[in-house]
Amino acid sequence: MIDRYTRPEMKQVWSLDNQYQTWLAVEIAVTAGWEAEGLVPAEDLKAIREHARFDSQRIADLEKVTRHDVVAFTRNVSESLGAERKWIHYGLTSTDVVDTAQALRLGQANAIIKADLIAYRDALAKLARQYKDTVMMGRTHGVHAEPTTFGLVMARFYQAAKRDIERFDRVSKEMATGKLSGAVGTFANIPPQVEAVAMEELGLTPQPIGSQVLQRDLHADYVSAIAIIGTTLEELATEIRGLQRSEIHEVEEGFAGGQKGSSAMPHKRNPIGSENIVGLSRVLRGYAVTAMEDVALWHERDISHSSAERIILPGATGLLDYMLHRLTGILEHLQVFPATMKTNMGRTYGLIYSQRLLLQLVNHGLSREQAYDTVQTLTARAWDEHLQFRDLVEADPTITNTLTETEIADAFDYQWHLKHVDDIFKRVGLLDESSSQA
C-alpha cells in the first residue's frame, strides 16, 4: 500500500497489528469450539480469552529464527499464557488461521468500501436531480449527436453506481467465509463441529469444502468485481476530463485557492483528480489478472498465491477506497456551466436536428430514402460552408413543399428530445428524494 493513495482507516485494516489481532481472534474462536466439544476445560478457555496477547516486535524476532510467521505468532501468544497454552493452534494448519482471519480483515475493508459506494451514489443522485433539465450536447464518437441533459448523463452513472453496490454486496457476502478443515481439507484433526462454533463466533460462514486453502476463484471474483467498479469510476472520470477540455469547458473540477495547475504555465487548471482515477483503475485491472493467476494451485495447495495476495488484497481494497473518496469529492465540488452547454449546441450549425427533420419528412409523405438524401445534402453543405442548417432547410423547395413553417420550427426545438426525461428518471429511481437512500 502506498501512503499517497491510502486512507487511514484502510491502512489500519491492513496493518500488521490488525493481522495478528484477527489471527488471535481465530485462535480463540477455535478454542471455544474445542471447549464446546468437551476437550478444552472452560477455565482454560477463560484464561486464554483474558490473557492471550501478542507483541509484533517479538513475533518479528521469533520469525528470524523460525522463518515461519504463523509459528512465530503462536509461540509469542503462548508466552503470554500458562499451561493452557497447549490449546493454541490445536488441530489447525497455518492456512486455517490465515485464510479465515483474512476474511475478517476483508469484512472490515468491505464495510469501509460499502460506505464509500453509498456516498458516491448519493453524490451522483444529487447532481442528476439538480441538472435534470439542463440541456447539453449528446456526443457519439466525440461528435455532436442529439441533445440530452447533464442530469441524464449523471443519472446514467448513478445507475452504474447502483450496479456497483449490488456486485460488491454479492462478492462481500461470498468472501465472508472461512475454513478450519486442516492440512488437506479432510477435518482429520479438527471436526466440523469445532469449525461451526468458531465460525459463528467470528461471524463467518464455513466454506462447504476446501483443500488446505479456500479456493482462490473466490478471491479472483472479489478482486475482479473491484476492478469492474474501478472501471466504472474511470468511465465517469473520462467523461469529466472530456467535458473539461478547453474547446468544450462544460464542467471543471474544483480548483482550491493556492492550488497550482502547472509548474510552468500559471493559467492551467487541469483535471488531475479524474486523471488520477483513470490511472489507478489500470492498476486495479492488473490486480484482477494476478488474482486469476492465483486460482490454479498445485494439488491441495502451494504458496504461489500468498506473496501476490499480500500485495493485491490490501492494494485493491485500499485503492478502491481512495478512488471512491476522491471521485466523490470531485463530484461534490464540480463546477457545471449550463450556459456553455447551451452555447456549444450551436457550434454545429443546427445539424443536431437532422434526424428529427428526417422523421418529420417521412411522417408527411416522403420515402425514407428521399428524405434522407434531401436532408444529408443540406447537412453536408452546412458543415462544409459553415452555414446555418435551418436557413438551408427553409430555402429548400422539397422541404417547404412538404412541411409548414410551424412543422419546420418544431423540428428544430430541442425540447422534443427531452420529453421523456422524467420517464427515465422514474425508471432509475431518481424522481423523488427518497429513492437515493440506502
Automatic annotation (TrEMBL):
This is Adenylosuccinate lyase. Belongs to the lyase 1 family. Adenylosuccinate lyase subfamily. Keywords: Lyase, Purine biosynthesis. It comes from the Bacteria. It is an enzyme of class 4 (lyase). It comes from Weissella halotolerans DSM 20190. One of its GO terms (biological process) is 'de novo' AMP biosynthetic process. Its EC number is 4.3.2.2. Pathway: Purine metabolism; AMP biosynthesis via de novo pathway; AMP from IMP: step 2/2; Purine metabolism; IMP biosynthesis via de novo pathway; 5-amino-1-(5-phospho-D-ribosyl)imidazole-4-carboxamide from 5-amino-1-(5-phospho-D-ribosyl)imidazole-4-carboxylate: step 2/2. NCBIfam families: purB. It catalyses: N(6)-(1,2-dicarboxyethyl)-AMP = fumarate + AMP; (2S)-2-[5-amino-1-(5-phospho-beta-D-ribosyl)imidazole-4-carboxamido]succinate = 5-amino-1-(5-phospho-beta-D-ribosyl)imidazole-4-carboxamide + fumarate. Residues 349-429 form the Adenylosuccinate lyase C-terminal domain. GO terms for molecular function: (S)-2-(5-amino-1-(5-phospho-D-ribosyl)imidazole-4-carboxamido) succinate lyase (fumarate-forming) activity; N6-(1,2-dicarboxyethyl)AMP AMP-lyase (fumarate-forming) activity. The keyword Calcium does not apply. One of its GO terms (cellular component) is cytosol. CDD domains: Adenylsuccinate_lyase_1 (cd01360).
